Amino acid sequence: MARLSRVFIPDLNIKEEEETVVIPDLNVKVEEETVVIPDPNVKVEEETKRKKEEIVQNKVINKTQSPSPRPIRMTQTITDMKGWNLCFATRKILEQSDIAANQCRFLIPKRAVLWELLSEAEKTEAKGKGLEVVVVDPRGRVYEMKLRKWARVTVLNSAGWRKFVEDNGLKAKLDCAQVWTFRSASAKLCFAFDVKRQLSV
Fold first, then answer.
1. Other CB atoms closer than 10 Å to residue 83's CB: what's the count?
2. Which tens digits make up the pLDDT trace of 147-175?
3. What Rg, from alpha-carbon coordinates, does the chain have?
């Protein structure tokens, strides 16, 4: 008996899967790329803001950072003068101009706590002939000087400052001056300087 072969006959009722073609809608806008052009004024404003923040930061550091303990002999002299209203004013790395023999003056930083401590009469005198003050060094020695206000700067000057520099062997870029203000028994404005030699420049 002969074998029958199976023949597959496709079902004509089954539709072949059609390929879908997507036609873009011309009414839909393609999203445009945004190009940001830097504004040169913004950079200037940021730089100005940074500088203002640095100034504020310097003032905060100057007012809140604790100074080193005062030398014993300096403190004893302040006590002997019956000093009162002791206030830490500023700290500063000495510049060459601060120790130059031909200038005889110490430039007080603008951020120093000083000007607001003066009376109106003292401010007027400082802007004129100079306000007479007393300065105490780390060893408790006393010097006569004048506080002067020149345009935008405030200085301690006179031959007294030159002798102060010589007696203490001050060096520019190496010595850091810590400065206090106080009033003597007669309410005269006084300064007390402590000088620390830095380990590195």
1. 20
2. 999 888 999 999 999 999 999 999 999 99
3. 39
